[in-house]
Design goal:
The chain is mainly alpha-helical. The protein has two domains: 1-53; 59-127, no CATH class. It has five helices and no strands. Helix 4 (60-89) crosses helix 5 (101-124). The longest helix has 30 residues, at 60-89. The protein is elongated, with a radius of gyration of 28 Å.
């Protein structure tokens, strides 16, 4: 019978200690569960957008990809050729330049990073 009060005191002490200093693994699990819930919600939104018959809803992500590809093609292929051609045939003409090249790299790396994650998922067999 003496073990019951000791067990009760030990349980009470454990409860008090857990309230003062919570278990970090439990808090980390809760944070991870919240992050997973956010990602799952975004995946549901992405699937709904992709299934939408409207081009304005389902096509905005591919449009951003084409815009980024066109901007990169102009900046690194067409613009140097235009500068060269203008120097030869139209010396007073300066071809227009797109803004900061660093912004294109940020956009490209972000898009390729997301593409790389999807490739990793495909390799791992995630549908």
């Amino acid at each position: 019978m003496a073990a019951d009060p000791i067990t009760a005191v030990a349980d009470l002490a454990g409860t008090v200690i857990n309230n003062i200093w919570p278990d970090k693994t439990e808090a980390e699990r809760a944070q991870l569960a919240a992050a997973v819930a956010i990602v799952q919600g975004q995946l549901a939104v992405n699937q709904a957008e992709a299934a939408n018959p409207s081009l304005l809803v389902a096509g905005w992500r591919p449009a951003i990809g084409w815009i980024c590809g066109g901007a990169l093609a102009y900046t690194y292929l067409l613009y140097p050729l235009l500068v060269w051609a203008a120097a030869i045939w139209w010396p007073n003409l300066t071809p227009p330049k797109l803004g900061n090249d660093g912004m294109l790299y940020e956009l490209l790396l972000g898009m390729l990073g997301l593409g790389g994650l999807r490739t990793f998922e495909k390799v791992k067999g995630v549908a």
